[in-house]
Amino acid sequence: MSTDPDVLVxxxxxxxxxxxKQGIVFKKEIARVHAVDGVDLQVRRGETLGIVxxxxxxxxxxxxxxxxxxxxxxxxxxxxxxxxxxFSARDLKAFRRDVQMIFQDxxxxxxxxxxxxxxxxxxxxxxxxxxGADRKKRVQELMELVGxxxxxxxxxxxxxxxxxxxxxxxxxxxxxxxxxxxxxxxVSALDVSIQAQVINLLEDLQDELGLTYVFxxxxxxxxxxxxxxxxxxxxxxxxxxxxxxxxxGAPRHPxxxxxxxxxxxxxxxxxxxxxxxxxxxxxxxxIDPPSGCRFHPRCPKAKEQxxxxxxxxxxxxxxxxDHLTACHFPVEPGESLARxxxxxxxxxxxxxxxxxxx
Length: 358
Hints:
The protein is an alpha/beta fold and 358 residues long. The chain has helices at 59-66, 89-95, 116-126, 132-145, 162-174, 192-209, 220-226, 244-249, 254-261, 268-273, 304-308, and strands at 7-22, 28-44, 48-52, 74-79, 82-83, 99-102, 180-184, 212-216, 229-234, 237-243, 314-315, 324-325.
């Protein structure tokens, strides 16, 4: 457990598994999806921690664990030194005043049958903070804060564009004056021009209100722009964690290097000179993850040690103390992996589930 007063949220050895069951009357658990499988993270007060990785790596599940929407299978998550995994329903309700979430889909996260004023005002109603004219005044102030017209208080979500809907989600998250906001891919469903507007809004709100963000995204350029530190996840585990500029300038995990090589480069001449690392094979199934390092079936630097032994997430030789890498054979400065292929023989990534008689 961290004793650093600057650490607002601490994730310690967190696992989240989803059971797979078969049977009609007597359902029997036959396997588990290892969505999050032993993650350690710390979120410091006032910073933006970016989390990146392929679809299915566990980013959104981890976000829901941090906000208390998913109970953890094992491990602990502490907020200001208190273990939220042991909170009662009453404690959890109070905790959610401090930790809020902005969801990915600005269409699915808003009830189309309710007016915007009631959607943004829900937190006030749930926590019994304001009602009547006072609630309407606070909601309209929030709408103005996020760049919406307060006069549109009685409109339905369908009357707003995608970017405006996401601003409604931001206003709802800000209602209770939280300290931490978990942004689960808040701009991935928006046009590029609208993405920039929402990102700038979030940055302005952070400066004005002193917010702490956990920012999840697929777009590496967006994560680099907004994040102080970045955690790279692969198949439920943290592959690398470092300051944003350090990670982008000198990635140490082969998976991080491959992700960064896929980033779009605006300059066509520079893009033509850049070397793309093409990973072989598919992402293994989270139902039956590989032994040792989970990236070894696709890694161009993998050796037998990677198959047998799980690497620790630690600072490797020559790296700063806050640059952590889970790799036995990290990428060396100047090393190119673009022409390398996976050295471990590929195996099927499809899990074989036992048959259960009904």
